[in-house]
Amino acid sequence: MRQVFVTRQGVEVQEVPAPVCEADTVRVLTSYSCISVGTEMSGVRATNMPLWKRALQRPEQVKQVVEMVMKEGYQTTRNLIKNKLSAAFPTGYSACGTVIEVGENVTQFQVGDKVACAGAQCAHHAEVLNVPVNLCVPLAPHVSEQEASTVALGAIAMQGVRRLEPSLGETVVVIGLGFLGQLTVQMLEASGVRTIGIDTDHARLKEAKENGMHMGMHPDDFDNTQQVSRLTDGYGADGVIITAASSSSEILSQAFKMCRRKARVVLVGDVGLNIDRSDIYAKELDFLVSTSYGPGRYDRNYEEKGLEYPLPYIRWTENRNMSEYLKLISDGRLSIQHALQATFPIEDAPDAYRMLKEPEQRPLVAFLSYPGDEEASKKQTIFTNKSISKCEGRIEVAVIGAGGFAKSTHLPILEKLQSKYNIRAIMSRTGAAASGVASQYNAEYATTDYQKILDDDNIDAVFITTRHDTHADYALRALESGKHVMVEKPLCLTSEELEKIETFFSTKSTNDAPLLLTGFNRRFSKYAEAIKQAIDNRSNPVIINYRMNAGYIPSEHWVHSEVGGGRNLGEACHIYDLFGFLTQSPVKSVNASSISPSGKHYLKSDNFVATVTFCDGSIGTLTYTALGSKDIPKELADVYSDGRIIQLEDYKSLEGFGFKLQKITTTVADKGHFEELEAFADAILGNGEWPIPLWQQLQASKIALDVQRQIVGDGQ
After folding, report:
1. Cβ neighbourhood burial of 130 (10 Å; 0-12, 13-18, 19+)
2. pLDDT by residue (tens digit) across 379-428?
3. Backbone CA torsion sign across 552, 555, 556, 562
4. Which regions of 191-292 does DSSP assign to beta strands (E)?
5. Alpha-carbon distance 276 to 480, whole Å?
């Protein structure tokens, strides 16, 4: 399918794989999408801006880069920045089309329904969309698909008006009469409010006047503050809604000065936010920010899982705002016909954006139209490189998941190990991510269809770097297809998933079974290898005290959700594997306790101590905490053995006490990622021993699940 992207070279239309339909979503064949003149054009301008100028505008990001270099090293940071700078960014967030497939749990839509869609994460300028149900609404009668494609902008304007809470007879100033401002004026007028509009474009003032605005003002014609005072009998405006875009804070200052005492100012647009206390204090003004389409926006439970807010308690959600906007058009209370002039076919999208850069040609809003070819929805695989014959002596790899970790860690390492690996395919949930990475690494094809990978006999191994809740299913399906699997930790999130994987291998002989490698990379680091060599000749059990100063992560973060599985399953599992690697012993018992937080700031799985006793008598204790300070190293380990102590600090230094051990230091944390992938390749090519014995991978996962039951129980 075709999709519009913003790149360093400008706006491009690229061929990418069509998205697949998932649970709680609908697949939509797009008819029209709406280009937001303000939001999207600012993104285009930012992409074309020189890097030094962007750095000056966002010094906090420069600081983050410096901190990352210090922590992760120059090369990892460079890879991450390179990926971001070379990436093609999808654009668009308002569209309309026809439902061609419904996902699991979806009951409110069926194939053939006409729907309007919103959301910068899904309603892109693309021939096919996969949209969560709460970001879709059915078309109202007498509303054209082109009109409906403005639904996101309509909901934004409506939420701004709702935040103001206008009442009959009030006078409200609207600053900025672009498309959002025009809609805002009409909505206020429909509510019985007298409106005053301000804009630097006489044509926009005229359009707003024709659509019911009471009074329009150009900055060159009046002192706006004094004129508002004249029009309100000297009291000032009851409220101001700012729909303009400017880096200046002067707009906000003027808005405050136009107000009467106890008035309200609502910010919908993007302006400077340096507030002068004297502008608001004496009048005791209320300053409100309107967040996009309304309640539900940026709430993952609402937008991705389809969980609805109860109407009696939250009357207007983003979905209800979207629906009401279309009803206002249907009832003739809103008119946007005057804005439906600039329409371009999808292939001419660069021309549309070029036109929007020219002030004398710029319309209020522009549209992209689509052919409605359902064949586009079937193109879930595209070839980004000419067909490559299978390379003898190299492992043909498919990388499943094209997120930040894969791009900053796995893919660069695979490229370095090109004498052993050949990246043949990239699969991701979004076609944009898959095709972008496939092009960058010269893969043969990109796809959104996992089955395509499983059916490809040329693929020897898959690297799974997707969401934690998909790991077990993806890994098992690949193993059943006869492919070797490297799956990032965790291997699984439930005992049932682990049992299925264990059952699979119980039916296979060692020679027939494909390799499985869980991404417990720490055991492959030079530090872990040195510790193991030092204690291999021990005469007694060892004690390993490990402290992970993990840092705080907000409770709403995906790590804590059913997608991430929590911090114990998602991260602490690394250490359980390290214990097993150092002791080389089966587990005897697992005991864990977590603190009981006094409030809801911390979860039970944020702070706990897990003690693992092994059959050889060794003990490994993990203190995992979010209570600490980031000013000290994240990971520290002390290993006690036969009158000796080995101390590991953050995989940057290793030192022995009580015996001679060559000190190891590195400038950045060396956690064994390169050695891990090299060992995986050698095992496949040489048909040697597994990099991590299966029993140890299963054991580490079982420890994590056991700890989870003890510290969390039935919930987090």
Report:
1. buried
2. 999 998 766 666 778 999 999 999 989 999 999 999 999 999 999 999 99
3. positive
4. 194-198, 215-217, 237-242, 259-267, 286-289
5. 65
What pLDDT digit, counting tens, does each position of 446-474 carry? 999 999 999 999 999 999 999 999 999 99
Q: How far apart are the first and last CA of the chain?
A: 41
Distance CA 221, CA 20 (A): 54
Among residues 150, 166, 113, which one has the least CA distance to residue 334? 150
Rounded to 10 degrees, the C-alpha dihedral 702/703/704/710 comes to: 110
Q: Is 221 exposed, middle or buried (0-12, 13-18, 19+ CB in 10 A)?
A: exposed
543-600 tens-digit pLDDT: 999 999 999 999 889 999 999 999 999 999 999 999 999 999 999 999 999 998 888 8
E strand or H helix at 171: strand 171-175
Which residues on adjacent β-strands are paired with residue 108? Answer: none
**Angle CA 12–14–387, to nearest 5:** 140
| CA gap 606, 350 in Å, rounded | 48
Give SS3 for 701.
helix
Length of the chain: 716
Label residue 99 by pLDDT band (50, 70, 90).
Answer: very high
SS3 35: strand
What token pair was written down for 244?
A: 């303009």
Task: Report yes or no: 152 and 119 within 8 Å, Cβ to Cβ.
Answer: yes
**557 and 674 Cβ atoms separated by less than 8 Å:** no
- Is residue 219 classed exposed, middle or buried when 0-12, 13-18 and 19+ CB atoms within 10 A define those classes? exposed
The H or E element spanning position 574 is helix 573-583
What is the rounded CA–CA span in Å between residue 670 and residue 524?
A: 10
Cβ contacts of 693 within 8 Å, gap of 6 or more: none
Tokens 């021309």 found at = 351
Strands, DSSP E only, in 493-615? 516-518, 543-549, 587-594, 608-614
Q: How far apart are CA 458 and CA 383, in angstroms?
A: 15
Q: From residue 447, how far is each of 325, 416, 487, 635 by CA, in Å?
A: 36, 23, 19, 38
How far is residue 21 CA from its own chain's centroid? 18
DSSP tag of 577: H
Calpha distance 536→16 (Å, rounded)? 52
What phi and psi, each to the nearest 5 degrees, are found at residue 383?
-95, 120
Type of residue numbered 158: M
Alpha helix (H) residue ranges in 258-296: 277-280
CB 533 within 8 A of CB 696: no
Task: Specify burial of residue 169 (Cβ count, 10 A radius: 0-12, 13-18, 19+).
Answer: exposed
Question: How far, CA to CA in Å, does 22 sit from each of 93, 189, 305, 591, 645?
Answer: 19, 41, 11, 39, 52
Rounded Cα–Cα distance for residues 214 and 209 (Å) = 7
